[in-house]
Design brief:
about 325 residues, alpha/beta, Rossmann fold, 2 domains, 7-stranded parallel β-sheet, 5-stranded parallel β-sheet, globular, binds nicotinamide-adenine-dinucleotide
Length: about 325
């Protein structure tokens, strides 16, 4: 079984080469991303393995199908970058890894908020330069604050529970609420408007869908509390970046922590140090002292990488053997 692997990073090669059954897959690792233009490189492969920033649109699927590729294996949970309808129409199958470690993403979410609020990143740099001054490093207690969790699926629930551990109030919004879980953890479901108006911190955990694109835009950001902190570890396009910058400029937003960014494709995961960044909005955000950005690394733990490699490899081998895919992974 030949599997062309796109946007391959050193940690991908490491974990996929060590996964159980990996010796039965001929991995063809490519550093570049999969797009319609690069899809020709999958020639001879029966499967392609892609990540969040590969561009698996209809044009790309058409090239893959014409070369005999049969399986698209996403090594991530979100699949907004895959044209699922086109995949099926062209007779290809697709799988993903729906839950590799929701803890990894939830813990990173809280880590980002703590860092931003308590200004740990700034303190770290100061102390290294023997600047032991505390001026400008004032944060707030999470205890007693209200955290609004948007999307209470796997990651949202764990994030909410961690915030409960700080004895914060947690309110939540989800199109399919989990009432028993909420009652068990002292969490209250409210409508989206209420969540925006009562939360000191808003944390996004919904998938990117046509209905969730620009969930936070000028109008909804205007409904948030003055001084609100916003955390997004889900998908960049959930936030209208221009509106976010405008709200940061007025001082309405207290802080923004992002692991994802609207235009991250082609930027995040790349080493662009020493180059001129051609994204003016990202440059602006990077200059604000109350904005903290990581480059889509919330999933990046040993546990998550092992699970991603295990599930993806098993599904590729199942496909070759004509066996069913692992439960809940097929798109
Ligand atoms: P999940 O499917 O378990 O939960 C998503 C929840 O969102 C569900 O409860 C669903 O009912 C709810 N939802 C859907 N549409 C909604 C809407 N319009 N309004 C309110 N709620 C809505 O997904 P998950 O495993 O918790 O992952 C959430 C997202 O996190 C993924 O879609 C992915 O985009 C992102 N993610 C990011 C990283 C990272 O490294 N930064 C890693 C994994 C996942």
């Amino acid at each position: 079984m030949i599997a062309a692997f796109y946007d391959a990073k050193p940690y991908d090669r490491d974990y996929f080469s060590r996964a159980t059954g990996a010796e039965r897959v001929d991995w063809r690792f490519h550093d570049f991303r999969l797009t319609a233009d690069t899809a020709g490189s999958a020639k001879g492969a029966q499967a392609v393995c892609v990540f969040a920033n590969d561009h698996a649109d209809r044009a790309c699927m058409e090239v893959l199908a014409s070369m005999g590729v049969k399986l698209i294996a996403l090594r991530c949970a979100g699949y907004n970058n895959l044209d699922v309808a086109a995949t099926h129409a062209l007779g290809l199958q697709a799988v993903r890894v729906p839950a590799y470690s929701p803890h990894a993403v939830a813990e990173h979410t809280v880590g980002l908020l703590l860092t931003l609020n308590r200004k740990i990143h700034r303190a770290y740099n100061r102390v290294r330069e023997l600047n032991f001054s505390l001026s400008g490093l004032v944060g707030f207690d999470l205890h007693g604050k209200t955290v609004g969790i948007v999307g209470t699926g796997r990651i949202g629930q764990i994030t909410a529970q961690i915030f409960r551990g700080f004895e914060a109030e947690v309110v939540a919004f989800d199109v399919s609420p989990s009432m028993e879980w909420a009652a068990a953890h002292g969490i209250r479901y409210v409508d989206f408007d209420t969540l925006l108006s009562v939360s000191d911190i808003v944390s996004l955990h919904v998938p990117l869908l046509p209905t969730t694109r620009h969930l936070l835009k000028a109008q909804t950001l205007g409904q948030t509390k003055a001084g609100v902190f916003i955390v997004n570890t889900s998908r960049g396009k959930l936030i209208d970046t221009s509106a976010l910058i405008a709200a940061l400029k007025t001082g309405h937003i207290g802080g923004v922590a992002l692991d994802v960014y609207e235009e991250e494709e082609g930027i995040f995961s790349e080493d662009l140090s020493g180059q001129v960044l051609h994204d003016d909005e990202l440059s602006l955000l990077l200059n604000y002292p109350n904005v903290l950005i990581t480059a889509h690394q919330a999933f990046l733990t040993r546990e998550a990488l092992s699970e991603i490699a295990r599930v993806t490899t098993e599904n590729i081998l199942n496909h070759e053997a004509g066996s069913p895919f692992l439960a809940g992974t097929q798109l």
